[in-house]
Amino acid sequence: MKNNKFLVKSFGMFFRYKPGRLIFQFIISLFLGFTQGLSIALLIPLLGLLTPNGSPSSNTFINFIETFFNKSGVGLNLKLVLIVYAVALAIIALLNYAQSIMQSSYQQGFSFSLRQRLFKKILNSDWEFLNGNSKHNHIQILTNEIPKVTTYYYFYLNMASKAIFALSHVIVAMMVSFEFTIFILIIGFLIFIALHKNINRSEKLGDETVSSFRKMLKHIDDFWSTVKIAKVHNSEIFYMEQFNIANERILKNQLEHTKNRSFPTLIFSVTGIFILIIIVYFSYSVIGIPVQNIFVLILLFSRIYPQFSQINNDMNMLVANSKSTRMVLDLDKNITYNDFNTTEDISPISFNSGIDLKNIDFSYLNENPLFTNFYAFFPAHKITGIIGKTGCGKTTLLDIITGLLKTQKGSIMVDGIELNETNYKKWRKKISYLPQESFFIDATIRTNLIWDSSSNFSDEQIYKTLKMVDAYDVVMKQKDGLDTYISNYQYHFSGGERQRLSLARALIRTPKLLLLDEATSALDSFTEATIMDSLVLLKNNVTIIFVTHRLNLIKYFDKVITLDSKTDTI
Fold first, then answer.
1. How confident is the model at residue 173 (pLDDT cuts 50, 70, 90)?
2. Is 370 found in the same domain as 269?
């Protein structure tokens, strides 16, 4: 089966998480398996003592137990056997309890560690990587697929534990009756092989379920992104139909998977009945095995044979969750682990002269060049406007200045120092960036204004900044002022209010470089003029680069860079 190599490979990631504890769990499983088998075997001398006129046993295992007790000077009697049996069962119960707690702790700890590591990797990934990958895929992995990986390894450990359990009971059963033990193993193995196609079908159903869940997640996000249009256009039915297609597919796959997993259980149960009848009949009528031995054989059979069914079920669950595990493994493999480096010196670099873009070449993957041998200079303590038609690279130029995008050629110089991977963090300490689309998180207004700042700000400092961008009244009209909790923010504020609050968030960081991308596009002319007047007053302390398509703002700019012709003009 093609999953065999993957099962081994995937176990490596699980094993690397606290391998000592994992090995210890296997040792406990091995010990429990054998002790449970031996506890059943102890029933033979117990039943022998309870059998009237019991004759000496010809079984080697029984003779060994009796000899052991006789040589130890303790006569084998009913009271002793019952005490030993009760103590053995009590110890086994305690060990089972401890093992279940330990296994759960291990699995949940693994899930926690994996989720934390992957999210940290995503956080520290390059902008180009994040921008080029589906957010739904990452959300799905972190929320839905990682728990399945935990389930995957649960069945992995379960299968290993059952194999150890079955092996220990097989060894004990062979001591009681070698022939019938081999007979049981052969029948179970043949049925296991015959049901191999069900395992392959589980893999296919698992893959389809993952794909259907992704589609459903995308439909939900699409609705939330366009809910206003959906309501105005009365198009709720469209979203319901799209959601139902994915939801019904998930339901169908789950039902099919239940049937596919239950069928082997049915086959093992039916064949088990016939095998049990054969064992009892031949043991008693043909071979003449003592009744107490037959009883123990039945108990051992009831322990061994169901393991084939349960291992088959675990295999079904393993391959059904293999798609989820592959997604997690691929994400873990494709993203380089970068620490936050909180101890690194990221004090701001000097910025007093200006920014030089020298001989820049840039193009997106498989697209025509946006910039070829491009040069521009952005003087410090000035407002530089970047204008041009849609798609000419205005926003891209800002992303290059921040270091989010890497150029194919050329250099970015700040006060004569070239920006590179070693000093980008220092450079970004000076920057505030206001993108085209205003965004907020589900939190209070205060948190939304200061969450991305390393400093603590008093209410007075926040109010001062809000007044600067004509957003003070926006906050104060809310029921709880700065402590007002907002969610679904795009409908909590108007477009202009969102822009003013976002501009306040950018300014409260007291940046040395302020990057504004269409920062006044949603404002009326009066408010826009008020904010632009405030920005003009700020340029003694802040260098401003302003992307816009509004030509009426040129009067506020000290310098204009027109990208349509890729020229640097004043």
1. confident
2. no
pLDDT more than 70, % of the chain = 85
89-114 in b/e form (b: 16+ CB < 10 A) is: eeebeebeeebeeebeebbeebbeeb
pLDDT of residue 37: 60
Computed on alpha carbons and rounded to an integer, the radius of gyration of the chain in Å comes to: 36
Name which of 188-202, 327-341, 502-516 the model is least confident about.
327-341
Domains in the chain, number: 2
Alpha-carbon distances, residue 199 vs 131, 157, 211, 221, 322 (angstroms):
37, 18, 19, 34, 12
Please, what sign has the CA dihedral across residues 227, 230, 236, 240? negative
**Structural contact between residues 517 and 395, judged by C-beta atoms closer than 8 angstroms:** yes
CA pair distance 152, 436, nearest whole angstrom: 42
Q: Measure the CA–CA gap between 230 and 245, rounded to whole angstroms.
A: 18
Boundary (domain end) residue, out of 306, 334, 362:
334
* Spatial contact of 346 and 507, defined as CB atoms under 8 Å apart: no
**Domain CATH for 437:** 3.40.50.300
Residue 570: pLDDT band (50, 70, 90) is very low
Q: Say how many C-beta atoms besides its own lie within 10 A of residue 562's C-beta.
A: 15
Average pLDDT of every residue of the chain: 81
pLDDT (mean) for 363-383 = 90
CA distance 184 to 173: 10
- Name the residue among 531, 517, 537 with its Cα closest to residue 467: 531
Average pLDDT for 308-335: 83
Residue 61 has pLDDT above 70, yes or no: no
Which H helix or E strand runs over 559?
strand 559-562
Q: Are residues 470 and 506 in the same domain?
A: yes
User: In 348-423, where do the E strands start and end?
Assistant: 354-362, 371-379, 383-387, 409-414, 417-418
Q: What is the mean pLDDT of residues 51-65?
A: 55
Q: Which of 302, 334, 366 is the last residue of a domain?
A: 334
**Helix spans in 369-458 (H):** 394-402, 424-428, 445-450
- CA–centroid distance for 568 within its chain: 46
**Structural domain for 307, as ranges:** 3-334
Report yes or no on 348 lying in a domain: no
Check whether residue 404 and residue 528 sit in a common domain. yes
* pTM flag (> 0.90): no
What are phi and psi for residue 385, nearest 5 degrees? -95, 140
Is 339 inside a domain boundary?
Answer: no
**Other Cβ atoms within 10 Å of 404 Cβ, number:** 17
> Same structural domain for residues 407 and 315?
no
CA–CA separation, 570 vs 567, rounded Å? 10
Q: How many CB atoms lie within 10 A of CB 329?
A: 17
CA distances from residue 290 to 53, 56, 182, 287, 406 in whole angstroms, order as listed: 12, 10, 19, 9, 82
- Looking up residue 156, the CATH number of its domain turns out to be 1.20.1560.10
Please tell me the distance from the alpha carbon of residue 469 to that of residue 192, in angstroms, as a whole number. Answer: 72
